[in-house]
Amino acid sequence: MGSVWVKSGVRYRVPCFSRPQFVFKLVNMIHIRNFSEHRWFRAVDVPLSKPKVYNYSQTTPATQFEMFSASDCERLEKAFQNNKETEVVETDGLVTVHLKKGYCCPTYWDGFHYEVRRTLWHEICQNKKLSVIDPGVESIVEKKYTTGNRKVRLLWPVNKSKRVAYSGKFSQHNDTTRLILHDSYAWIPYLSKRILVRGIPLDFEQPKTRPPYIPRPVEHIVFCIHGIGQLLSLQYAQMNYVRDINAFRRMILQVADKKANSSSAAIEGEPLDDLNEGDKPIDNYNVTGAKPIQVFPIMWRGLLDTEEELKAQQLFGAPNVAADAVLDFIMYTEPRHKLRIQEIAASEMNRVFKQFCDLNPDFAKNPKVSIIGHSLGSVIAYDLMNSGSKDLEPDFTVSNLFLIGSPLGVLKLVNKQFKVEMGRAKNLFNIMKLSDPVSSRLEPLISKLSLGFGPAAVPGDGTNLLQQFKSLTDDLAKNTEILASKASAVLQMIASKEKVEPPLLLPAGDSHLPELEKFNRHGRLDFRVNETIDISLFLGIVGHFMYLDNPDVVRFILDEILINDK
């Protein structure tokens, strides 16, 4: 009776096995959301493309998809119907969906691109779970469904165009809510059969959704400039600065949640439902009444593409932290490359600032910006704040400059530069770990009297170190027994330590120096992260990359931003 042309190349991928043919049951459920029958999904496993530096080409299709939130689906569908090219979604519009091209990518930085699908038909899996289907299959099924020609049998996979005659029968349920296609040719029940449903019935398990885009009054943004080792992200996913910033956002939320035990707080993060502004006063350290904050990575390394760099990389053997770090530092000491790196970092911050202001006009009325520079990124940030070049001047006022894990002190000492200036920043902080072989103090460059006392201690009890080394064991010790044994030994040492009382921010009255008063409200410049044990040089190098996932560091940065905003 009915027939269908199956176009060449249309394939429906069946996990774990492949059958020569299977049958669709077309089910029209009336219990669906009214705002739109279409849903929008994005891939979460295999990217379509990566930044140029990765030299990436997709070889396998994406198989794991997550649905955008209900509100974002509605935004996307409305934009699609209005023939818009793009629409921003998710937290603070951090993701941009290219509607016609069918992919999404980060809004504010160059990142991975993932496939986006606008779906109407979904496959019924076990336990009333739904999954997306191949767009080619969906197009054919929807066409036959809307034309009333439901008496069709579709064969996948196919190697060429093939006409398939229908040999089954059609029936309609008495409740008139389902239209089912039967086919006598189906064989091996439950293996060869695939059941599709139009829309998403409410009695089915709803697919996992992405965080929604909820407009909120972001009042402070933070630019994070990365340091050494970013080329290693080409080989190791753990060495990815965007992932570090995502962890930083989550840590901000965790710190805010702890503060919310005694007061309301509104801090950037996910979920956004419980973010409400507080109305209690701010004390010396425990901040309440926090305002929303958003952070952005400044990815300068991937934008630095020079012939000299490629030749230098060939001089090293296998990619490693030391080689990558040496290359980054050497390039920054060469005047021409140094200027190019500064231009990239400054341009990226100005670009993101302008783009965020365009999408958030309320923020643009009274923008507040802070900068975090890690490792070599701290040197770049400091040089930008003290540059006299108009080309490197930011388009915004910098409220706070945080240098973390910074070698700036040593570099200044080597170059015999015994002066530290704030430049364009209103407040300056140098956060370090005594176990970090890269970080160095700045106060002794200003006054030799500071050699008589150590850095001011960032409040904290040191117990978060246990969590850090557990993460270290999970992420890194899988590939080396030596690291596993060392990390395990350190874990035992940490667990056996008694909890210590949080130290005071200022260790002693005689640590006050007039020369340091200008840098921030504490009258200190160097701040150390509290650590309860000695760490070997090997683990200290690893610790150099573990600042923004440290609750004490995040709490300190967050509090300084919010207090100085007042």
From TrEMBL:
Cellular component aspect of the GO annotation: cytoplasm
A Pfam family it matches: WWE_2
One GO MF term attached to the UniProt entry: phospholipase activity
Keywords: Hydrolase
DDHD domain segment(s): 394-563
PROSITE patterns xrefs: DDHD (PS51043)
InterPro entries given in the database record: AB_hydrolase_fold (IPR029058), DDHD_dom (IPR004177), PA-PLA1 (IPR058055), WWE_C20G8.02 (IPR057826)
Metal-binding recorded as keyword: no
Lineage top rank: taxon: Eukaryota
Keyword set includes Kinase: no
PANTHER family: LD21067P, PA-PL1 PHOSPHOLIPASE FAMILY
Name of the molecule in the record: Carboxylic ester hydrolase
Source species: Starmerella bacillaris
